[in-house]
Amino acid sequence: MNTRRTVQKLQKGNSRNFEFALKTYEEIVKLARELCRTPVDDIVNFITTAKTYGLSPARVAEKLRDNRWTRKQLAFGNLVLPVNQEYEAALMEHGRIDFEDMINKAIDELNSNPNLLTDAYDHILIDEYQDISAQRYKLIGKLLERNPSCKLFCVGDDWQSIMGFSGSNLNFFVNFEQYFEKPAVTVISTNYRSVKTIVDAGATLIKNNTSCQIQKPTLSNRKDLKPVRVVQLLHQEAYEENYYRQMAEDCLDRINAYLQNGYSPQDILVLSRFMRTRVGRAYRFFYNIGIFVEKAKECGINLAYEKLDARNKVRLLTAHKSKGLEAKVVFLLNATKGTYGFPSEIEDSSLYEPARENYPIQDQKEEERRLFYVAMTRAIEDLYIYTWEPAMSEFLYEISDYTIEEKLYY
User: Fold this and answer.
1) Where do the domains of the chain lie?
2) N or C: which end of the chain has fewer CB within 10 A?
3) CA-CA distance, 376 to 326, in Å (whole number)?
4) Quick one: fold of 192-408?
5) Which of 140, 135, 130, 128 has the alpha carbon at shortest distance from 212?
6) 81-112 confidence digits (pLDDT tens)
């Protein structure tokens, strides 16, 4: 009876037909694995974004009430609001501020004190400028206003802009001359890190982005033509767990071979689009990464999960955390399509729209492509990308002129 009523409600005002169907045990297990990501990170990103735009919980509540949002945006916004309010109350109770508060309070101090930091700076230097947010742009503007003879020097690469989830706005970089008058721009087109094949593959990949980026030539000062190796596992869809196990075993075998040939653990970097999710105050590995970690223990390979904890360990990081790093050999796991693939289908930047103001619509696929570019270009010499034949990432087709496939049979 309840099932019939549910179907009637679903079909009311909808031309589609709905029906309930039993799932097999294997299908239920697969769904449970796919849905293991908790919403904690999204809640944190929503609160961070709201603070980045100077929006109090009351202002966010007003926006949710007065504007038109999708059901998903409304549901998530209303889920975050009480968390945001409790968080602000906890900060106030303990007399603390977070990083976003620090910038907002600095802007408030400059606004309330017209003499603060007047003629205090000759130069302002900003690294990773492609990840600038509206909040930080305001702070820069105020400092330049107080220091009219100050020179602003910014360094960045729009192809590596991957922080949209925390409020960065690529327009500040791509349209720099609209925000700062008559800038002198120097384009550094030579890559001094990676072999030529990786540089060319990355440039070809990123040219598929069309909405907000600067087209520029790229050259490698190295002439090595080592191909990017795409290791393709052939398990059928029903045997996803076997795919994860074989991927882990093959990757660790190759790592062992490099170590036996004189490479140090710091020469090797293993990357994944997703690695852990928050559960309470702790973290839990995603299923495929959990298998990799267990297999590494069996092989006696020590892993580091943070940039600074890497002495005599092979680093296993997310693509986001690899930013700014490099290694002679890079293994990129699970370049597949799907919910937790690469590009990820679970990321939904529209969730954060109620926490933003005057923010241009961003193309999520393009940000994922930039993240894939960052992961690829961590490699100095050798790059291995693992994929699954039934679900190959579309990004692999975009760089196919620079790859060779190695099919792993079982």
Assistant:
1) 117-179, 192-408
2) N
3) 10
4) Rossmann fold (3.40.50)
5) 130
6) 999 999 999 999 999 999 999 999 999 999 99
